[in-house]
């Protein structure tokens, strides 16, 4: 099964080495880190994620995800890199003081949306840090010492 099968299986973008957009798509935020991935998929929806995982299962490829590549370490050679950039929804329930965001959203975007309601979040100190990576893996935010465990 070739990567051309993956191109037809997903609605989002599939970038392979040699494609015009590949270098841009594979580049993490941390430009000191090189990432020799086999493919980059900018998933459009949950079905795309399922299609990538099914392709990886059938071909024995590793799958990694990076909203921004802020925490890139360079240890993902030959993997399929899933970019969640298109999952960019932000829904603020000001009354409940709850934000529900897509997995590609960055903290700066949440801060801007929350500020319209006089609210803020337990954000990273850099506005381009991704909410998902920061929440799962940690970072350093303005309120971290008081509110993070
Ligand atoms: C050089 C460097 C500078 C930094 N500077 C700052 C800073 O100024 N301020 C600050 O607050 N933090 C900083 N950090 C820490 C940063 O907040 C963390 O690395 C954080 O995890 C980055 O999240 P991200 O989503 O932006 O990064 P990414 O590298 O895109 O993602 C980090 C990891 O999160 C996991 N992940 C993300 N999304 C998903 C998902 N949907 N499903 C499953 N796993 C997922 C993956 O394991 C991924 O590798 C820095 C880190 C480094 C290495």
Instruction: Tell me the distance between the termini.
Output: 45 Å
What small ligands are held by the chains? flavin-adenine dinucleotide
Instruction: Tell me roughly what share of residues is in helical segments.
Output: 25-40%
> How many helical stretches?
6
Give the strand order, joined by hyphens, for the main sheet.
Answer: 1-2-4-3
Question: At the fourth CATH level, what is the homologous superfamily of the largest domain?
Answer: Uridine Diphospho-n-acetylenolpyruvylglucosamine Reductase, domain 2
CATH architecture verdict of the largest domain: 2-Layer Sandwich
N-to-C SSE series? Answer: HEHEHEEEEHHH
CATH classification class of the largest domain: Alpha Beta
Indicate the structural class. Answer: alpha/beta
Radius of gyration: 17 Å
Largest sheet: 4 strands, mixed
